[in-house]
C-alpha cells in the first residue's frame, strides 16, 4: 500500500467512501498491439483490500487486467516452485467491481470528476464489456 498512499499524497487527496479509483499506468498506449496483454501492471490483493477498507467499491485500470499478466504470474509460481494463486486480487473475496482496459485516463484531471459505466448485460456472465464515461464539471 505504500505506492497507493504515496500516489494519493502526491495528489493531495485522501480517499473517501464510495470514491472510484482509476489507476493510470500508461499501458493503454499499447492497446491493440499483439503484446498488450503482456504489458500489464499488477495491483496487489493487499492494495485492493486497503482501498476497499477505505470505502472504495469500484476500481479501474488502463492495463489489460487488474492483476499482472498471466505469463508473469505463472513465472512467479514456477520460480517459487509452488502452486500459484492466479488472479490474486480478483480472488480477494471482496464485493467490489473492477474496470479494466480503460483508455485515455491521462486526459482526465487527477480527481474531481464523475464516472458512469454502461455495461453490456451478458446472461450468466460474471463480466462483460462496458462503455465507461468520465463526466467533467457540473
Characterization of the model:
This protein has helices spanning 2-11, 45-53, 70-80, and strands at residues 20-23, 58-61, 97-99, 114-119, 130-135. By secondary structure, the chain is of the alpha/beta class. It has one domain (2-110): Putative cyclase (Glucose Oxidase, domain 1, 3-Layer(bba) Sandwich), CATH 3.50.30.50. It has a 3-stranded parallel sheet, with no helix packed on it. The protein has a two-stranded antiparallel sheet with strand order 4-5. Strand 2 (58-61), helix 3 and strand 3 form a beta-alpha-beta unit. The longest helix is centred in the middle third of the chain and has 11 residues, at 70-80. It is globular, with a radius of gyration of 16 Å.
Amino acid at each position: 500500500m505504500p505506492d497507493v498512499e504515496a500516489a494519493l499524497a502526491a495528489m493531495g487527496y485522501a480517499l473517501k467512501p464510495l470514491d472510484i479509483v482509476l489507476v493510470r499506468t500508461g499501458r493503454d498506449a499499447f492497446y491493440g498491439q499483439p503484446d498488450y496483454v503482456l504489458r500489464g501492471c499488477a495491483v496487489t490483493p493487499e492494495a485492493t483490500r486497503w482501498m476497499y477498507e477505505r470505502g472504495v467499491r469500484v476500481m479501474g485500470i488502463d492495463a489489460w487486467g487488474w492483476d499482472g499478466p498471466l505469463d508473469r504470474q505463472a513465472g512467479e509460481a514456477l520460480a517459487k516452485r509452488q502452486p500459484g494463486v492466479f488472479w490474486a486480487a480478483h480472488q480477494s473475496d471482496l464485493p467490489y467491481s473492477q474496470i479494466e482496459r480503460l483508455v485515455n485516463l491521462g486526459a482526465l484531471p487527477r480527481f474531481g470528476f464523475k464516472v458512469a459505466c454502461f455495461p453490456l448485460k451478458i446472461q450468466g456472465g460474471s463480466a462483460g464489456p462496458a462503455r465507461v464515461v468520465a463526466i467533467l464539471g457540473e
